[in-house]
From TrEMBL:
Annotated keywords: DNA-binding, Transcription, Transcription regulation
DNA-binding region extent: 18-37
Gene3D superfamilies referenced in this protein's UniProt entry, alphabetically: Homeodomain-like (1.10.10.60), Tetracycline Repressor, domain 2 (1.10.357.10)
Pfam families linked to this entry: TetR_C_33, TetR_N
Domain of life of the source: Bacteria
Protein name: TetR/AcrR family transcriptional regulator
Boundaries of every HTH tetR-type domain copy: 1-55
InterPro entries linked to this entry: Homeodomain-like_sf, HTH_TetR, MT1864/Rv1816-like_C, Tet_transcr_reg_TetR-rel_C_sf
The keyword ATP-binding is annotated on this UniProt entry: no
Amino acid sequence: MVAAGAALADEVGLANLTMGLLAERVGVRTPSLYKHVGGQEDLNRRIAALALREAADAVGVAVQGYAGRDALAAAARAFRAFVLEHPGRYAATIGMEPSGPDDPLATAGQRLLDSFTAVLRGYEIAESDVDHALRMLRSLCQGFATLQAAGGFQWSADIDESFEWLIAFADRGLRTL
């Protein structure tokens, strides 16, 4: 049910995903969905956890065997590709707070952070600055990808070229710390 909801969120947008629409998509009556999920909020939480697991997998695989700028570029490109391919399910992750350390949302989110933390090991960053560097990378990558997914880049410059510029900018910044 969650996978169907995530696919539908990617198709129609998270804001337009409803239990009724999901029931229609999977060919059941809406009350039947409540055997699988506790309601819209529960569905959104499960979609968010799924999205974080999938994003962590994509980034983790992409950075294997790379270090420094190459790892940064691989992680950023994989993350961007995931958000562009799955904008609805990724939207579910934004602002969704884990209920505790064992919440699937927390464990999946930590896996994604671990992948980006591995990227940072290729730079000489003080342990006290790692959280700041992670927030910077998240802001750059998530901001770019979600803006692009929403059609936020309407001017003529090539979007891929702009993204490569962002990677180079982040790499230069991380190397100067």
